[in-house]
Design a protein that fits this description.
It contains ten helices and five strands, in the order ααβαααβααβαβαβα. The chain is of the alpha/beta class and about 200 residues long. Helix 2 crosses helix 10, helix 3 packs parallel to helix 10 and helix 7 packs parallel to helix 8. The chain is globular.
Length: about 200
C-alpha cells in the first residue's frame, strides 16, 4: 500500500502518520463534495505547490482515461483519447500578473489571502506549505480560509508555529532546517497525491 510504503522508505515520518492520514481524509471529503484544493507557499514551497497540482490535474501513477460516456462528448478522436480525468486543484503561486498587481497596488502580505477569499467555495481545501510555519502571507491565507469556512491542511517543519496553531491539520515534518524540511515535503505530497488518485481511479 502506498501509505505504508512511505514509512518504510522514510521511517522518520512515522511521527506524522496520523496527520498525513487526516490530510488524506480531508482531501477525499473535498473531492467527494465537488470541491477543489488551493495551494500556496513561497520559494521552494511555491514550486511544491505547482508540482502537487500537476500530480492531481493529470495522470500521476495512473493513466486516467476518459470513460466511454465522456469520450462521446467529443467529435474529435484525438482529443477524446488523450484527455485525462483530473482532480481540481489550483496553485495560487502561478498567477504572476494577479500577484504582482495585488502586491504593488494593495498589500503584498495578503497576496494569497486575496485569492483564497475569491476562490473559496464550500468543500474546498487550502493546502499550504511553509518550512517555518510562520510565513506571513501563508498565515494570512489560512486566516482567509477560516473566514471562508473551508478546511486547511499545512506542511511545516517540526517546531510549533502559527500554521500548526491555525490549521485543521498540520503535518509537522521532523526537521528544522529549511532544505531538510523541503527534502521530506516531496515524498509526503507524492504519497497524498498517489493515495487520492488510487481512491478515485482504480484502473
Amino acid at each position: 500500500m502506498i501509505f505504508n510504503e512511505l514509512f518504510e522508505r522514510y521511517p522518520c515520518l512515522e511521527s506524522c502518520k496520523s496527520d498525513i492520514r487526516s490530510a488524506f481524509e480531508i482531501f477525499l471529503n473535498c473531492y467527494d463534495a465537488g470541491g477543489k484544493i488551493l495551494c500556496c507557499g513561497n520559494g521552494g514551497s511555491a514550486a511544491d505547490c505547482d508540482h502537487f497540482v500537476g500530480e492531481l490535474m493529470k495522470g500521476f501513477l495512473k493513466k486516467r482515461p476518459l470513460s466511454d460516456k465522456e469520450k462521446e462528448l467529443f467529435d474529435d478522436e484525438y482529443v477524446a483519447n488523450n484527455l485525462q480525468s483530473g482532480l481540481p486543484a489550483i496553485s495560487l503561486c502561478a498567477h504572476s500578473a494577479l500577484m504582482t498587481a495585488f502586491e504593488n497596488d494593495v498589500a503584498p502580505s495578503l497576496v494569497f489571502a486575496q485569492q483564497v477569499y475569491a476562490y473559496a467555495k464550500d468543500s474546498d481545501v487550502l493546502f499550504s506549505f511553509s518550512t517555518s510555519g510562520n510565513s506571513e502571507n501563508v498565515v494570512y491565507a489560512v486566516k482567509a480560509a477560516k473566514a471562508a469556512k473551508i478546511k486547511t491542511v499545512s506542511v511545516t517543519g517540526e517546531k510549533e508555529s502559527e500554521l500548526s496553531r491555525l490549521s485543521d491539520v498540520c503535518i509537522r515534518l521532523p526537521e528544522a532546517e529549511t532544505f531538510k524540511v523541503q527534502e521530506l515535503t516531496l515524498p509526503v505530497y507524492h504519497c497524498l497525491a498517489a493515495m487520492v488518485e488510487e481512491h478515485y481511479f482504480k484502473v
